[in-house]
Amino acid sequence: xxxxxxxxxxxxxxxxxxxxxxxxxxxxxxxxxxxxxxxxxxxxxxxxxxxxxxxxxxxxxxxxxxxxxxxxxxxxxxxxxxxxxxxxxxxxxxxxxxxxxxxxxxxxxxxxxxxxxxxxxxxxxxxxxxxxxxxxxxxxxxxxxxxxxxxxxxxxxxxxxxxxxxxxxxxxxxxxxxxxxxxxxxxxxxxxxxxxxxxxxxxxxxxxxxxxxxxxxxxxxxxxxxxxxxxxxxxxxxxxxxxxxxxxxxxxxxxxxxxxxxxxxxxxxxxxxxxxxxxxxxxxxxxxxxxxxxxxxxxxxxxxxxxxxxxxxxxxxxxxxxx
Length: 323
Ligand code: SF4
What we know:
Layout: E1 5-20, E2 26-42, E3 46-50, H1 57-64, E4 72-77, E5 80-81, H2 87-96, E6 97-100, H3 114-124, H4 130-143, H5 160-172, E7 178-182, H6 190-207, E8 210-215, H7 218-222, E9 227-232, E10 235-241, H8 242-247, H9 252-259, H10 300-304, E11 310-311, E12 317-318
Parallel strand pairs: 3-8, 3-9, 6-7, 7-8
Antiparallel strand pairs: 1-2, 1-4, 4-5, 9-10, 10-12, 11-12
Helix pairs in contact: 3-4, 3-5, 4-5, 5-6
The protein binds iron/sulfur cluster.
């Protein structure tokens, strides 16, 4: 794991406006999907980003690549603020920053052969054409554990795990520096999940890749992550090394998420924290600490004052009044 941040996110915000009226539509509110998050990812590192559905983690991934536009904030990548790049610079950036989606079937064009799907980004970015492109496609198929003859087949001829391998090959086709893995194994059978995670780890080692690995539970990111960020209702509530997060979680929400993971060692007893209620709406999030409506240890101050996201030592960031 290198020390220099490859990507740095500062106070990133995404509010989706809610409008009313057909002709003279006016904004009547906003979905606060991402609300002022900051983090960095070092070169060669995997940062896990975890939270329940609707917490803003996938929106965050899309904001980094500008698949959707941010409301405010900065995303620094190799000395440039991605959010300020013009069309042409953005096109170049897409070579360095790739994304793998949760549903590999929906993200692969069913009318294109696998060879064309993997070859297309190479053509768009002028990396390879003709027989050179075909050769590179075959190499990539083998790299991700498929066979070169698969290039002539169509996505529907493959299983879910194989389709995700095709998605990985397509992302690799442009030699990216960072890949946003947006719940890449959530739609796969448990037995296949480990294979895809192992593949991603092997590729990281071989190509020096950097990952933002998004998942909805902490058990999936445990093996692949160097550090883990936990998101709740548009905010990062805890961010630290994998070791510190799993051995010494400080935020009550992280503790609750961890307590839901079965412990393989029967002699180890982990305190079970049951979260009451559903995640509140991001349209009208709770005052003070957004977690206070479900927090088992909330106090009066939590209702009125938002806790600061701060380093409590050795790069362990947490946002809680009690820490
Ligand atoms: Fe719970 Fe209060 Fe900490 Fe929020 S600030 S996590 S409500 S104790």
